[in-house]
Amino acid sequence: MKKLTLLSVLFSMVVSPAVLAAETGGIAVGATRVIYNADSREASLAVINHSGAQYFLIQSWVDDSAGSKKVPFTITPPLFRLNANKENMLRIIKSGEGLPQDRESVYWVNVKAIPPAPEGDGQNTLQLAVKTRIKMFYRPKGLPGNAAETPKKLEWHQQGDDLVVKNPTAYSASFNNLTVDGKEVKDANLVLPQSEVHYKLNSAHASKVAYKCINDFGGLTDEISSSVN
């Protein structure tokens, strides 16, 4: 029977740079999020190969929350070889118009690390390519307030069986964790500016929330407590 070689099995997952490095034997990205200020010509993201011997093919692109690549941003270089113990810088460039100017817009930067096809004697081989996906915040000029103030300005109320969080600011809020009366909300993630998100309650009434958000540098805010109206 002819032996088959599995060239690649792709696992697409949202992972931290540390996990990406571990899964691919040395590839990491240099941040957990990208802030693209409109008064800058571009934003950048480092990709580092910590492997002592192996090169990787790096593919990158920007998409929206639904995974569509029809977005007003391009990455250069979109595909390149990254040798062992080397670093390369991705440049993200705004290439389209029509973005809101009164609030942040959120997109996603994807970086996929593809190892070389293994050399061997035809034995079956499982080769993994791992993708990391991090948020990119496009921030227009002249927005009121600042991003650091946003977590404390979130508004909470109950609507039927839903806990509703409203973000009245021009900036996004990314949750690291959220609890309602001490019970964890597992799907808490992101509240876009000037919008609201609903979470199903596990009890008839909610009285207090506690949460931490992720700041521009990937760190955490102090825990914030708020009453539910």
Automatic annotation (TrEMBL):
<comment type="similarity">
    <text>Belongs to the periplasmic pilus chaperone family.</text>
</comment>
<protein>
    <submittedName>
        <fullName>Fimbria/pilus periplasmic chaperone</fullName>
    </submittedName>
</protein>
<keyword id="KW-0574">Periplasm</keyword>
<dbReference type="InterPro" id="IPR036316">
    <property type="entry name" value="Pili_assmbl_chap_C_dom_sf"/>
</dbReference>
<dbReference type="InterPro" id="IPR016147">
    <property type="entry name" value="Pili_assmbl_chaperone_N"/>
</dbReference>
<dbReference type="Pfam" id="PF00345">
    <property type="entry name" value="PapD_N"/>
</dbReference>
<keyword id="KW-0143">Chaperone</keyword>
<dbReference type="InterPro" id="IPR013783">
    <property type="entry name" value="Ig-like_fold"/>
</dbReference>
<dbReference type="InterPro" id="IPR016148">
    <property type="entry name" value="Pili_assmbl_chaperone_C"/>
</dbReference>
<keyword id="KW-1029">Fimbrium biogenesis</keyword>
<dbReference type="InterPro" id="IPR050643">
    <property type="entry name" value="Periplasmic_pilus_chap"/>
</dbReference>
<dbReference type="InterPro" id="IPR018046">
    <property type="entry name" value="Pili_assmbl_chaperone_CS"/>
</dbReference>
<dbReference type="InterPro" id="IPR008962">
    <property type="entry name" value="PapD-like_sf"/>
</dbReference>
<keyword id="KW-0732">Signal</keyword>
<feature type="signal peptide">
    <location>
        <begin position="1"/>
        <end position="21"/>
    </location>
</feature>
<feature type="domain" description="Pili assembly chaperone N-terminal">
    <location>
        <begin position="26"/>
        <end position="143"/>
    </location>
</feature>
<dbReference type="InterPro" id="IPR001829">
    <property type="entry name" value="Pili_assmbl_chaperone_bac"/>
</dbReference>
<feature type="domain" description="Pili assembly chaperone C-terminal">
    <location>
        <begin position="165"/>
        <end position="221"/>
    </location>
</feature>
<dbReference type="Pfam" id="PF02753">
    <property type="entry name" value="PapD_C"/>
</dbReference>
